[in-house]
Please model this.
Amino acid sequence: VAGPARSARRLVNDPAGVLINSLCRPASSPQAITAGCTGKDGAALTDSSTACGMCSGEFFLFRGGCYKVGEAPGSEICTKAEGGKCTICKTEGNYIFKNPATSVTLGNECILCSDTTNRDGYKGVANCQTCTAPGSAGATTCSACQAGYVRDANANVCKKCGTGCSACSASDQQECTACLEGKYLDGTSCVDASSCTGAKYPDPKTNKCIQCNAAAEQGGIPECTACTYNDSLQKPVCSACGGPKPLLKTAIDGSTSCVNADGCKSGSTHFVNDSSDKCIPCNDTTTETDANDKGNEGYMTCTKNSGQAPVCSACLSGYYGTDICTKCADNCATCSEANNANKCLTCMAGFFLVTTGENKKCVACDSVSDGGREGCSTCSNDSTFKCTDCKPNYRRQQNGDASDDYTCTRACGDSKGHCPPPPSCRGQSSLHITTNCKPSRRRRSWTGCWGTRALDTPRTRRCSTGGGLSWHRCRQEVD
Model:
């Protein structure tokens, strides 16, 4: 049981087994014995048995299996059990109702809203998600249906929605109002992403086909006639504009808008070409071939007069100059002289400024010989060096009392964080696992590699049904 009105994936080690906490176990397994799984009369079961008739202790009988109170999935069904039966059903959430029968058969104390089996005169409704307990014998009253179904209140049934729908209209089940994962709502139909192109785009946040020219608050770009969804930006990017704002303006971060000539020049980061049909970024050197319509790779803002090349008014980070922008030395964000590593004023991320006399250069945060710190990935640009974060294969630890300064300790393996392979098992006597290396008295380090541990277990045994070995158990995943 998972959540609990939905089917669960089960880890099994024998197709012919009994359910113990939703895992299929042979009736003679330690788990089944601990749960007190026996026949209805208390008789022992065989390994060919497929259901429990009784449970004991903190376990309770539910739909032929034994479940433990306080552990999932049993905790989603029952909150208290005595003598192998549930005495208090978990009715919060309304996925389950308590059987109101005067005389309740063992195992029928709690009934799923979707369980259509007659249990002492009471039952659920097929594909029902939440419900209220019935006042008289018969089916419960369904209040909400599972995904892909809609409630017919008059008939107290859940009707299947159209293909791909997770929700639909009660009056017309083919009229979708929401879609299953991987489908997108286009009007009242659920379609594949490939059917949601051109003047529309598939929005993964709403699972809807959005018109490219929709209002911004609806996820569109006004006046845009063609677009696609950009995963990095998590929003659409326009490829063509029309109407009163025919110029496509692309910002430095890649986001787009449709503008007129004045909108293009707003902010001075773009200019309109001499043909008046394109809005070009000041640093764009590839869109146009005419020298008068080409930008410069170092320009951040510029101005342009018709028939003349754009003129720089401010340079991008990493460039130096006024009318002409020339690249600073690598790693310099700003500089006082182009192409001179000793004339940096501020540094790019991952570097810090080191001053020696009149020379100022940017060095990597992890350059120990220059005053950096091993494993440091980002650092402050203050006069006092502070490491603000570490590389992925390093552990971050607070440096003294400073809340924004850290030391970085090598976590595992080589400089890229790769661990060496574990040693081979000796006759299946040890099971190697990869963990986050949290302390555990049952684990011990085998190589000093912080990311891997070995678990000794003399009880490890081979699998007889083709399953994989995992934590002392033979497991095989099935739907």
